[in-house]
Amino acid sequence: MYAIDIYAEVRHAILVERRSMRETARLLGIDRKTVRKIMDHDAPPGYQRVSAPRRPKLGPHVRAIDRMLKNDTSKPPAERRTARQIFEYLVEKRGFSGGLTTVKDYVRARQRQA
């Protein structure tokens, strides 16, 4: 994927300087097909995940995490469990073998949904 500055250069060369796509491609050292794709979009298309990330290690523990987060909503913010505290509970009490980042990502996503 090309950086924003390449997009700007291509669009400036074609729209402002009135250069052809072929000439712009030659000047910038990129393929003509790339120039065409850049001209088809006003801004670089962002990355879009095709499917939700799989979390096989977290799967059996999702209901417990959801239950903890639901119970915490009635508590003041200072007393709610952090993702690290949830992770430590899962490791100690439920035998979770995954990583902290997996738990943090899931907790963050669930909190955004609420």
Helix-strand string: HHHHHH
Helical amount among residues, as a percent range? 55-70%
What portion of residues belong to β-strands? under 5%
Number of strands: 0
Largest sheet: none
Poorly predicted runs are none
Distance between the termini: 34 Å
* Rg result: 24 Å
Shape: elongated
Total of DSSP H or I helical runs spanning 4+ residues: 6
From the helix content, strand content and strand pairing, which structural class follows? mainly alpha
Please tell me the overall pLDDT: 91
What are its keywords?
114 residues; mainly alpha; elongated
Task: Explain what the structure shows.
- The chain is mainly α and 114 residues long.
- It is 58% helix and 0% strand.
- It contains six helices and no strands.
- The protein has helices spanning 4-15, 21-28, 32-40, 62-72, 83-94, 100-113.
- Helix 1 (4-15) crosses helix 2, helix 2 packs across helix 3 (32-40) and helix 5 packs across helix 6 (100-113).
- The longest helix is centred in the C-terminal third of the chain and has 14 residues, at 100-113.
- The chain is elongated, with a radius of gyration of 24 Å.
Topology (SSEs and partners):
Elements: H1 4-15, H2 21-28, H3 32-40, H4 62-72, H5 83-94, H6 100-113
Helix pairs in contact: 1-2, 2-3, 5-6
Quick take:
By secondary structure, this protein is mostly helical.
